């Protein structure tokens, strides 16, 4: 991934690399977590799916920190 990194406003300072068709990188420095999603969505881009994906991955990261 080379073009843009998207920084979240969440408390973990997570950032993402979002590709086409659901490809997703999620890096959470607080939880020390990296998630890679390899997908094949029918649409090249879908902002709603990206938001839902980021929320779900942040929930996993919060769970890891709480352990």
Mean pLDDT: 91
Lateral strand order in the biggest sheet = 1-2-3-4
Count the helices. How many? 1
The succession of helices and strands, N to C, reads: EEEEH
- Per DSSP E runs of 2 or more residues, the count of β-strands stands at 4
Distance between the first and last residues' Cα = 31 Å
Radius of gyration: 12 Å
- Major β-sheet, in short? 4 strands, antiparallel
Principal-axis shape equals: globular
Low-confidence segments, given as residue ranges, are: none
Helix-strand makeup class: alpha+beta
Oligomeric state of the chains in view: single chain
Proportion in helices: 25-40%
Share in β-strands: 15-25%
Please explain how this structure is put together.
The chain is of the alpha+beta class and 67 residues long. The protein is 30% helix and 24% strand. It has 1 helix and 4 strands; from the N terminus they run E-E-E-E-H. It has one helix spanning 47-66; strands at residues 6-7, 15-18, 24-28, 33-37. A 4-stranded antiparallel sheet has the order 1-2-3-4, with helices on one face. A hairpin with a 4-residue loop joins strand 3 (24-28) and strand 4. The longest helix is centred in the C-terminal third of the chain and has 20 residues, at 47-66. The model has no long low-confidence stretch (mean pLDDT 91).
